[in-house]
């Protein structure tokens, strides 16, 4: 939700950024919150003692995830605009106009990266993979 609020509502609606820029900024702003929530609640790694390692691996995954989110949103937007056009809808109570296609596209991009994130964090980020011990061993030789 933070990603959507920052990206679509603040960046795109109020500052007039492009869809790609808004989604990317929302993704970047939501990164620290995502790490904390994933570590503490989703993968029960609160007391792992490997926060530094997990943060490094989390950032590696996030780079790919960010690309999936941004490009997924843009490609979905392009496809939906091609199929339905970019129509606007006005919310009657607050008298605010928004693009359902833009909103659906942003959530689609977040959904694509959610699937990628879940499996990579579960199998790579918040488990002991031994990769850092191998790097240390190479460094010490």
Automatic annotation (TrEMBL):
<keyword id="KW-0472">Membrane</keyword>
<dbReference type="Pfam" id="PF04138">
    <property type="entry name" value="GtrA_DPMS_TM"/>
</dbReference>
<feature type="domain" description="GtrA/DPMS transmembrane">
    <location>
        <begin position="9"/>
        <end position="126"/>
    </location>
</feature>
<keyword id="KW-1133">Transmembrane helix</keyword>
<keyword id="KW-0812">Transmembrane</keyword>
<feature type="transmembrane region" description="Helical">
    <location>
        <begin position="97"/>
        <end position="119"/>
    </location>
</feature>
<feature type="transmembrane region" description="Helical">
    <location>
        <begin position="55"/>
        <end position="77"/>
    </location>
</feature>
<protein>
    <submittedName>
        <fullName>GtrA family protein</fullName>
    </submittedName>
</protein>
<dbReference type="InterPro" id="IPR007267">
    <property type="entry name" value="GtrA_DPMS_TM"/>
</dbReference>
<feature type="transmembrane region" description="Helical">
    <location>
        <begin position="23"/>
        <end position="43"/>
    </location>
</feature>
